[in-house]
Amino acid sequence: MPPRGLSPSGLVLVDKPAGPSSFQVVKRLRDRTRARAGHAGTLDPFATGLLLVLLGSSTRLAQYLVGLDKRYLTDIDLSSRTSTGDVEGEVLARHEPPGRVQLEARVEELRGEIELPVPAASAVKIEGERAYRLARRGVAVEMPLRRSTVHELVLIGYEGGVAALDLRVSSGTYVRAIAEALGGHCVTLRRTEVGPFSVADADEDRIVPPAEALAFLPALDVDEEEARAIRQGRRRVAERVRVLCGGELVAVNGTVLP
User: Angle at CA 188, nearest 5°, toward 182 and 189?
Assistant: First the structure.
């Protein structure tokens, strides 16, 4: 029997509602399953959509999921800026929203490789303290720039000064930063995809087995003797390869599962 907290093991696809934090969602699943739990990429409380929650011994596999591209749907109010870049912040300035042609030009500039300031209301540490804590105290700091890639950015609607966008971005991209670059703030934010995973497949009652959760990685099938050698550290495997024995996940890039 696996040690306490390591079972059940696998991935749960959650469609997070607006309101609870990612930590609260993880805690709910941990309390229900009695297994260790963690997520592979947070969502702000006001945001909805796909949250990847890892259970049991699979929490060690988060490193292979956090770097995946992500797809979002967002509505951005271009008539005002807020202190957080989203609907939960205080309004800092109001202005006339841009026309359609001007907006499309701004959107075009944000496709591809971009470098934008990290939002002040983020978890990034500034001199050892979380930026959002400094922001809450009214401490003004110069936020660092973050380079990321916007693979796709589509303006799917624009009405009443609110732009609806569909975007696919590299890991670590702040959609709120994109909203601020456009001159507004996020009213809604929904994550629809993380790598090969879709919110359409979210089901809190299903635990995706580790081998299936990492099916996007190339596989190496080994026999029992080879699996034993890998578990004992007597054999190394190539990076970003999942090692399978009888359909069960043995290791990924040297990370051995119990």
Answer: 85
48 is written with which tokens?
A: 């909805």
- Total residues found in the chain within this entry: 258
182's tokens? 């456009």
**Positions marked active-site:** 44
Amino acid at 54: L
Class of the CATH domain delimited by 1-67+195-209 = alpha beta
Domain spanning 70-192: which superfamily?
Pseudouridine synthase (3.30.2350.10)
- pLDDT tens-digit readout, 2-25: 556 888 999 999 999 999 999 999
The sign of the torsion formed by the CA atoms of 196, 200, 201, 205 equals positive
Residues 164-202 have pLDDT tens digits of 999 999 998 999 999 999 999 999 999 999 999 999 999
Are the CB atoms for 190 and 48 separated by under 8 Å? yes
| Domain limits, the chain | 1-67+195-209, 70-192, 217-258
CA-based angle 157:161:167, to the nearest 5?
40
**Which residue reads 């809450």 in tokens?**
136
**Predicted structure pTM score:** 0.88
Q: d(Cα 28, Cα 31) in Å, to the nearest integer?
A: 5
